[in-house]
Amino acid sequence: MTNTGTECLLLGITGGISAYKSVELARLLVASGARVRVVMTEAATRFVTPLTFQAVTGNPVHCHLFDEEYEAAMGHIELARWADQMLIAPATADFLARMAQGLADDLLSTLYLASSVPVSVVPAMNVHMWRHAAVQQNLSVLASRGVNILGPDSGAQACGDAGPGRMLEPTDIVAALGSLNHRGMFAGNKVLVTAGPTQEAIDPVRFVGNRSSGKMGFALAEAFVREGAEVVLVSGPVALNTPPGVRRVNVQTALQMHGAVFENIKKTDIFAGCAAVADYRPELPEGQKIKKTSERLALNLVRNPDILAEVAALKDGPYTLGFAAETENLAENARAKLLAKKLNMLAANPVGDNLGFERDDNSLLVIWPGGEKQLPVQDKGALAQSLLGILEQQYQAHVGHVKGS
Ligand code: C5P
Known about the structure:
Mean pLDDT: 92
Bound molecules: cytidine-5'-monophosphate
Oligomer: single chain
Largest sheet: 8 strands, mixed
Helix content: 25-40%
């Protein structure tokens, strides 16, 4: 795999002044591990010589549809088949119009029609041309056909004008291409995450709760989405925004969390129980606010269901990741919990003494039946990403094992 996520990239260059930036673009693409073949329009060769691109990519540059030499070596249909992806940078207003029209009057436009791989264009033109209705209409036609439009940038232009129309910088193009091609470690997986505390009513105004902020669970949900998963986040009361792309279900009590989890557990591939679920709840919450009339008040608490253990006990249930906040004997207690709840993986973190709760950073000891790994103190976002790296390896091994057995 390369940074851009593609192996064979066909780089089309059309005739604009920013074609000079495409030399650096080609260099960066080659450096990222892609095999790059350049196709230039006639106009592009007036700005930069094919020899320059040949030197940078190590491959001959293709310029003509009817070139006997090239057609004999690698014909245009073969070239279209070779590519995993097409990137046209710069894409002039004229070339975008020809793409939108479906013209095939030169090599690059013919390759666009002949190939069925993903296509990205990086428009570059004068600000007034960019704003023209004809250009905008062509772009919407191309976008509706699934062409990725990268940029343009805004700023000073070679012609002296300023505004939108500048070609994106090569590094930005490579980054944009990378995220377009990033399918993610958990693409196609359904993930259910619980987060935050639960609040167990004592009376209408008071509750039994805990210090969980929900930050770790939310960071985990966000990381799963970034890695391509479809994520449901069942959250207790927290003051956090829902990460984009996450379906959030709000609950207050452990019993509500239990209900929401089992409503959504079907077809879940991975269950991450990150919530600090209250182990006990007041047996009979008072209907009215309790008055301070007596010297002592005893709360009668009953056990809440263990959501994580119940999910782990499901026949053909999901891969289960539990969390454990421990104030002492972290490793020992964590391994005992992994076994007792029959989990696939457990992430344990030290709490107390200003550690863990309500903070933006944390450390984790991640354990699974065959091993363990210590993740050092870091921001919870980075921690979630590192945890997913370990989880992906173990989850793949687990899926392979289940299929094989
Ligand atoms: O046993 P302990 O509460 O320390 O276990 C913590 C793990 O179990 C966490 O993953 C938490 O989300 C889960 N849990 C649960 N339901 C409970 C208590 C804990 O799902 N009632």
